[in-house]
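Why do we care about 3D structure at all? Because function follows from shape, and shape follows, mostly, from sequence. That is the central idea of this module. The next example makes it concrete: a single protein chain, its amino acid sequence, and then its structure expressed as tokens.
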Amino acid sequence: MTEEFKIIDKEDIALLKFPTTDVLDDVDEIKTRISDINRALSLGNLEHSKIKIFFEDSESKKIVDTTVWGVTDKNVILKQGVMIPIQRIYKLF
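And the structure:
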């Protein structure tokens, strides 16, 4: 799966534009994504562990290796207030 995803620096995410549509349409995949986000949040807060986030902006699929610092109902929050909309995330690990 990683072949089609381009690596991006966390700092560059703030410059991206995100459509409002969800990249996932399967209910089970959406549930898995939410549990993966909560796991990533725990790892980030407790162990400061980095995880890979596979997501898509308005141009292409991207991957970032980072620590999740917070989660809202619509966004995953990274360091320095950088946010990725949850509905644009394919998976985390």
